[in-house]
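lol ok so funny story. i was supposed to be doing the assay writeup but got distracted and ended up predicting the structure for this chain instead. priorities right. anyway since i did it might as well share w the group, maybe its usefull for someone
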Amino acid sequence: MAVLGAIALLSLSIWIVLLGFRGGFWLSDRRLDEVATSDFTNWPPVCAVIPARNEAEILAVTLRSLLSQKYPGSFHIILVDDRSSDGTTEVAKKVADSLNQTSQLTVLLSPPLPDGWTGKLWAMEQGVRHAQTLSPPPEYLLFTDADIDRDEDNLQRLVAKARQENLDLVSLMVLLRCQSFWEQLLIPAFVFFFAKLYPFRWASDPRKSTAAAAGGCILIRQSALTRIGGIERIKDALIDDCAIAQAVKSTANAQTPQPSIWLGLTQQTRSLRPYPTLSSIWDMVARTAYTQLNYSPLLLLGTLAGMAVVYLVPPAALIVGVATGNGWVAILGGMTWLLMAIAYFPTIRLYNLSALRALCLPAIAFLYTLMTLDSALRHWQGRGGTWKGRVYSQKLDPN
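and the output, tada:
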């Protein structure tokens, strides 16, 4: 009981530090939806690049939303078909034709994947190369996934944010699909854990080394992409969004210590990618969890131990304390579990779910811990990084 009480006290201390000194990661208050777009008259040219592999079913909605953007400046879209077998190209052309926007869309077929590249980044590279031939040349590139359904003002707000604060990169953690039982249980926590790992305020603070972006929606200045060496700089990155953010932030002009990137949330632009079952979410997390730990067994052990102390000890201490009549252990466990729920509640509210779900975080964390362990097992078995029919088992290049 003394050992359990000591660990429970440690867990409580950790949560106090997390809530008070971790960049307010849990507040979910950095929103792009409130950015004003009426301050500009000269809107820069923008080109969107969409890597798409077997996305025919979802493009009918998502590409339509991108083609329907109310953007006052020049806006072109390049969809790069990454060797699809489901008619992705044909669907994209039909959507553009139905909106009389065929001149606004270019569809490219990605060449065969060369060694050392991930499929998504190779497709993005083709889009970037073609964008450089456009007239007028784009001042900003919008890297976006094929599953993103945008509100009509999304691009205006992204560009306005970049221009107002002279940012090289603006990224959105879009609202993820949250419909099935497993999505409602696990998807908000995915956003919560991401924000805890990469506090959004720290990402935009030039004094902090933290850098992050969300790959579904990244607006980047063309000159910044050139400065970092282009997409080739991160060609083998499995976690490409954070890799590009790190490259942009690390090469920002040291003579002008101002934010170079911004990462925030939105409720108006959302992902339609379905994860209806536990196995689909499990595969999504296990694909890159061990990559995030830089394939280090020591970091894996530390992560497993840390997840146990931070998330599993509080309810265990409460239950054991009540069962044995040890009031202090029960109080420590209960207080920590309450702090945990308070921290998780803003994310639950972001997804318009019942506040009672905030109490489920320990069970959710246990599942994510198992996913992380499975990610390592898959890597050791040569099955790591599986995505869209490809397996990427190489180690992420930290450079």
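The two ends are 47 Å apart (CA to CA). Residues 394-399 have pLDDT under 50 and may be disordered.
back to the writeup now i swear
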